[in-house]
């Protein structure tokens, strides 16, 4: 069972570079989420999607964009990376049944130099 | 806005003993859901237990149980017969009840690092 797969697992960028993180889930879940995890801060929601073609801002959306063109994929983009975006990024998904636990990917460690 | 507080940044316990991790939350909602997630050194986020606020009975899952005190807005996790594999970060999380089409966002605490010693 693949579950939620994040690509890549590690990446180092230079300030100003752009990149896209890919999240793919094979559980036919309606809802998908992007979080960032910083030391001592827990997980904070960046953006989320309640269905194909829809996205919305979370708690810390600035500097990020997302797209959900296909139900199984949720992309997180950094247009111009900044050192403050150095973090571990987690993708999660959950089914449309109400208030069920979210299933998480293994995370992407991103360093911005 | 909801907030979740985990007042114990780090804890340790001897193997086979029992440990309780604290979590309090602040909300004006009457119906909501609470979760404990475990994050071992492998970094994977693993669901430990889920509690529905409208249920008075405390959730249990094998060696893991919660003490849910709705009036006190407290949701502690008890781990019995601790094992070395329980060593991990533990996160408490809150989800408010939403109507159809709304987002079921999780609000996380900052985590408690638990070490189980042999």
The level of helicity of chain B is under 10%
Name the chain pair with the biggest interface and residue counts per chain: A-B, 25 and 27 residues
Overall outline of chain B: globular
Radius of gyration from the alpha-carbon trace of chain B, in angstroms = 14 Å
Oligomer: heterodimer
Calculate the terminal CA-CA distance of chain B, rounded to whole Å: 41 Å
Total helical segments of chain A: 0
Give the overall average pLDDT of chain B.
92
How many individual helices of chain B?
0
Strand content of chain B: over 45%
**Per DSSP, what share of the residues of chain A sits in E-state strands of 2 or more residues?**
over 45%
Low-confidence stretches of chain A: none
Q: Tally of extended strands of chain B? A: 12
Runs of chain B in which pLDDT lies below 50 for 5 or more consecutive residues are: none
Given helix and strand content, the structural type of chain A is: mainly beta
- In terms of structural class, how would the helical and strand content of chain B be classed? mainly beta
Q: What is the CA–CA distance across the termini of chain A?
A: 35 Å
Q: Helices and strands of chain B, in N-to-C order? A: EEEEEEEEEEEE
Q: Shape of chain A, please?
A: globular
How do the strands and helices of this protein lay out in sequence?
The complex is a heterodimer of chains A (113) and B (118).
Chain A: E1 4-7, E2 10-13, E3 19-25, E4 31-38, E5 42-49, E6 56-57, E7 65-67, E8 73-78, E9 87-94, E10 103-104, E11 108-112
Parallel strand pairs in A: 2-11
Antiparallel strand pairs in A: 1-3, 3-8, 4-5, 4-9, 5-6, 7-8, 9-10, 9-11
Chain B: E1 3-5, E2 10-14, E3 19-21, E4 24-26, E5 32-39, E6 46-52, E7 60-61, E8 64-69, E9 74-79, E10 88-96, E11 107-108, E12 112-117
Parallel strand pairs in B: 2-12
Antiparallel strand pairs in B: 1-4, 3-9, 5-6, 5-10, 7-8, 8-9, 10-11, 10-12
């Amino acid at each position: 069972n693949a579950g939620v797969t994040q690509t890549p697992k590690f990446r180092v960028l230079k300030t100003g570079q752009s990149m896209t993180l890919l999240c793919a889930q094979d559980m036919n879940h309606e809802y998908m989420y992007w979080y960032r995890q910083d030391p001592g801060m827990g997980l904070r929601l960046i953006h989320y999607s309640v269905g194909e073609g829809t996205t919305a801002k979370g708690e810390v959306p600035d500097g990020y964009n997302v797209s959900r063109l296909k139900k199984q994929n949720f992309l997180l983009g950094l247009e111009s990376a900044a050192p403050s975006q150095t973090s571990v990024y987690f993708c999660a998904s959950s089914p449309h049944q109400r208030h069920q636990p979210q299933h998480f990917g293994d995370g992407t460690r991103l360093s911005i130099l | 806005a909801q907030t979740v507080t985990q007042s114990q940044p780090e804890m340790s316990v001897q193997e086979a003993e029992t440990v309780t991790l604290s979590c309090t939350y602040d909300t004006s909602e009457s119906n909501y859901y609470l979760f404990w997630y475990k994050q071992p050194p492998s970094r994977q986020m693993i669901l430990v237990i889920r509690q529905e606020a409208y249920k008075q009975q405390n959730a249990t899952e094998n060696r893991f149980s919660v003490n849910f005190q709705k009036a006190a807005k407290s949701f502690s996790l008890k781990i019995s017969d601790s094992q070395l594999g329980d060593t991990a970060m533990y996160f408490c999380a809150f989800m408010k009840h939403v109507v159809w089409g709304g987002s079921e966002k999780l609000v996380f605490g900052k985590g408690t690092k638990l070490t189980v010693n042999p």
